[in-house]
Structures are given as C-alpha cells and as structure tokens.
Design a protein that fits this description.
Length: 390
C-alpha cells in the first residue's frame, strides 16, 4: 500500500467573526508551541493550580470545584447535566433556542424528565414564567442559557431565576459558553450552582479544555447520588480526584490545550474582567450601530454583545452573503439556526476578534455585499456610525 501524498498544512487566513471559534490570541498560539510535560509532572500539577485560580477569577466564584473538562464545550455541558441529573429527576430547561434543546436532549439521556419554559426564539425567559413552571413541576434542577448562541439573546434577571429555583429546592445550571470572559457573569453573587463554558468563544483559545464550576450544593449532589453517572469519562466524582488535592490519575489531560487556556486566562486577568466586559460591549456596540445605521436591525429582544443576530432584508439570500464575505473578504460569519434559519446572520464579537479594526472591516464588507444584491441599505452611513461609536 502506497502512502498518501498530503502536502504541508496551509489553512487560509480568516477573520473569524462568526459564532465561534474566535481568533486565537498570538500569545495563546505561542503557549501551545511550548514543550509537553507529563500530565502528572510536578510542573504540570503547579500549572493546574494556576488554571483553577484563573478560572475562579473569570467565573467570579470561590468554588473549590472549578476545572477545565477535557473536551469541547459540549463535554463540559454534558458533564454538568449528567452529573446533576439522576434517573427520575425533573429538570426545567428553556425552549427559546437551539442550546436549550441540546440541554433537554442531554437530560433525557441521563434518565431525567424534561419540562420546558416557553419563550419565543429571540427573546429571554420571563422570570415569572420560570416561577410558574417551578410551582407546577417542582423541578430538581433548573437550567438556563445565559448567552444563547443561536439567537443572540442575553438572559437578564439571572438572580430572579436562581432565587426562584432555590426557593423550590432546585439546583441551577447555567450555559455560559458565549458569555464567559466577554459578558458580565457573577457566578457566586447570582447564585448559580453549576456553570459550564468553552474556550473558543470569548476566551479566544482553541477548543479542547472547557471550563466548569460547581457550588458546594452541586458537589454534594454529585457525591451523594444513588446511581452512578452513566459516563465514566465525565464522572465528576472521579475527575475531582485528578483536579483535587490527590492529583490521582484519571485520564491523560490535553496538555497543550491546558497551556492555551492558562495563557488565555492570564490575558483576562491582565485586562481585568470588568474592563474586558466593557470592551466587548463597546466594540460590539459599534457593530450594532453600524448595521442599524446601514438600514438593518438585530433580531434579538435582548442584545448579546458577544453574538449579534443581524436581520437580513427581504429577498436577500443569506448563503450568498456568507459565501461572498468569506471568498472576497476572508471574513467568516454564520447563518441562523432553527426558527431563524435563512433570516439572519450570526456575527460574533468575541475575545481577540472583538477589535475595532475587525468591526470596521466587517461593516464595510457587509455593506458592499448587500449593495451588490440591490438591498435597500446605506453602507456609508453604517461605516460612519461604527466609527463614531469607536
């Protein structure tokens, strides 16, 4: 058998302005090129401690159980849901976006019973609706998506949700995949029991080591389960022995990804978490001003700076816009999902991608593409508005 002829790796140079991944910071890339050590090497054990402290700062929590799960954000998501859902548990999940649906699917696989809180795609949950659902279903766990990547919705009034859940004896699980490191998130102050995230969004690191934090109440649920978690790899009671004081072998951690996460979190700490939240809001605000002045609108009722759903004019084909931006300008954005498919562009403004130059380039390119399709837009007004905001 002859070996295949495969050339040198030469991926194209893209401006990543979609729903993720975002552009990896140059310092993070350099960290990934440093030599490997063993996953139980004393030097790596020290690094694990540093990563956990940096994660606590970024999550704004004192939770002892704060770790990167070996895997993408979906692995952190499944570890939270699978470990906090026992067979027969009732879990309340949102019905206002794609990732609420994924949460429901994971609950069913864990043996739980799903109840939904209804809200339109493009709208946040109403705390009164959550309270009514808790009264009706008496859930064991309440899940919500803090930053819904499919719709560009930011869930406000988080303390109202958590207070209602706790009043009914339920734990609260938060999807913070598109908010951690880019949008205000205060795990302890807001009463969140478990929060999971990913690295390729506002942290601007490659996927592969995904943040997770559990409160003491959540850890107690994990350690007092009647039935073992159905996943051995994501069993947090076992992972606690590796990431806790024992540092006992469980699996070989993705060492290079942990290096990358550590450097990404160092960048968060150097910038300051509140300054970082402000930067995302300011730069994404310029994007919002630009598309609105151009003649477009946002499809969301509750603006999420890190992920903007730009409503397209009638008669404009989203795939043509997406393909043209990529082929002619090297800019990646994405189309809508679910109820918003074909109607919107999903434009990320996250991490290292949340820079003024990126936003100005995108607004200018989008105006040109839409004008070429004879859409009723004013590209010059859009670019001027974005510049004024910046």
């Amino acid at each position: 058998m002859e070996p295949p002829e495969v050339g040198e790796l030469t991926p194209p140079d893209r401006m990543l302005m979609g729903p993720g991944p975002s552009e990896v910071h140059p310092r993070v890339r350099r960290a990934m090129s440093t030599p490997l050590v063993g996953h139980l090497d004393p030097a790596f054990v020290d690094l694990m401690d540093e990563v956990q402290e940096l994660l606590r700062y970024t999550f704004q929590t004192d939770n002892e159980f704060t770790i990167p799960v070996s895997g993408t954000g979906s692995a952190a998501m499944e570890s939270a849901i699978a470990n906090l859902t026992e067979p027969g548990d009732t879990v309340l999940v949102p019905d206002n976006g794609y990732f609420g649906d994924r949460m429901a699917s994971m609950v069913r696989r864990a043996g739980g019973s799903v109840e939904r809180v209804d809200a339109p795609w493009g709208a946040p949950l109403d705390p009164d609706d959550v309270a009514a659902a808790c009264e009706t279903h008496d859930p064991d766990v309440v899940g919500f998506v803090h930053a819904e990547t499919s719709t560009g919705v930011l869930q406000h009034d988080v303390p109202a949700l958590t207070e209602t859940a706790h009043d009914h004896g339920a734990l609260v699980v938060a999807d913070t995949v598109t908010s951690l490191g880019g949008v205000e998130l205060r795990v302890d102050e807001w009463g969140i029991d478990a929060a999971y995230s990913a690295t390729q969004k506002c942290l601007s690191a490659p996927p592969g080591a995904s943040p997770l934090t559990l409160s003491e109440r959540a850890v107690e649920k994990v350690t007092s389960r009647d039935a073992p978690v159905r996943s051995w790899y994501l069993d947090l009671s076992l992972l606690a022995d590796y990431w806790g004081e024992e540092r006992a072998y469980h699996h070989t951690a993705p060492i290079t990804n942990v290096y990358a996460l550590r450097e990404a979190l160092r960048l968060v700490a150097e910038e300051g978490i509140e300054a970082r939240w402000e930067r995302h809001e300011r730069v994404a605000g310029a994007l919002r001003d630009g598309v609105e002045a151009m003649g477009l609108g946002l499809a969301s009722e509750s603006w999420l700076p890190s992920l903007n759903t730009v409503a397209l004019p009638d008669g404009v084909d989203d795939t043509v816009v997406i393909d043209h931006l990529l082929a002619e300008h090297g800019i990646e954005v994405a189309g809508g999902l679910g109820d918003l498919a074909g109607d919107v562009l999903r434009v990320g403004c996250m991490g290292h991608s949340a820079r003024p130059a990126n936003v100005l380039a995108l607004v200018a390119a989008l105006g040109d593409v839409l004008a070429d399709q004879d859409a009723d837009v004013d590209p010059d007004a859009g670019l001027a508005a974005a510049r004024r905001r910046l």
